[in-house]
Amino acid sequence: MLQTFNPKNLTIKVHVGGKLLPREEAKVSVFDSVVQGGDAVWEGLRVYKGGIFCLDKHLERLEASARALAFEHIPERQSVKKAIFETLSANGMRDETHIRLTLTRGDKVTSGMDPRLNTSGSCLIVLAEWKPLVYDNHAGIRVITASQRRNNPQFLDSKIHHNNLLNNIMAKIQANISGMDAAVMLDHMGFVSELNDANLFMVMEGMVYTPLADACLPGVTRGLMMNICRDLSIPVTEKNLSLTEFYNADLVFATGTMGEITPVKEIDGRQIINRSSHNILENIIARFHKLIPQYSEKIS
Q1: Regions in the chain scoring below 50 on pLDDT
Q2: Domain limits of the chain?
Q3: Coil, strand, or helix at residue 47?
Q4: Whole-structure pTM value
């Protein structure tokens, strides 16, 4: 499901390094750490009817990721919110908007890996675009298992939401070549971790399961899904899950800010068939949509 260009985004303004700039002028230096080594952290935010969904949760993760990477300058949360609100206001955006929020380590005095070369402070980028959900959540998606494994903490902790996304991109390339929508990524032991761009859940005999967050990002929407299950008295468990268990599940779905809740209809050529009478997914989706206003921070 390849996203298409929206002509409305041709004239957007982007917040870069404290300035609101037209799209064609919104750039960072070739000496910026994100160019030099993918040295940055990011969050994806979704705007619904005048509110930004789970804004503080995303900013908490942005700050935690920056601390884990030993950023010396992490902007105050209110200044980040101010930049976000200014960007949305400048573009007249209040709904159907995706925000790519990036914090780089900033410019280096000369090219190189050493963070001590970064002396000018971090650079905040707020890129807001008119954009629909990434997947068709009515039709669902077809996925294939990638040979590329998901990072675990012994290599690069996936709980750091960093800009070096090459192993996810390699998995997505495999999905593209296979004509699939996304790729399932396994951990170093061969258990299911997540999709290349979303967390995964499965339902079996009325129980909801999701992989342990050892080699995957514990997503904001993932956490909300687990809370929704508990509120609806649906048993939910985190555990190691094999591909075989996913193949034989009654339901499989993916969660993420850019996709919300997406049914997975096929994995590696196996159709996911609901052999039970449970309508768990419909109930979860209905509750999620009811909670969106409650969890959204109003755009000032």
Answers
A1: none
A2: 7-130, 141-291
A3: strand
A4: 0.96
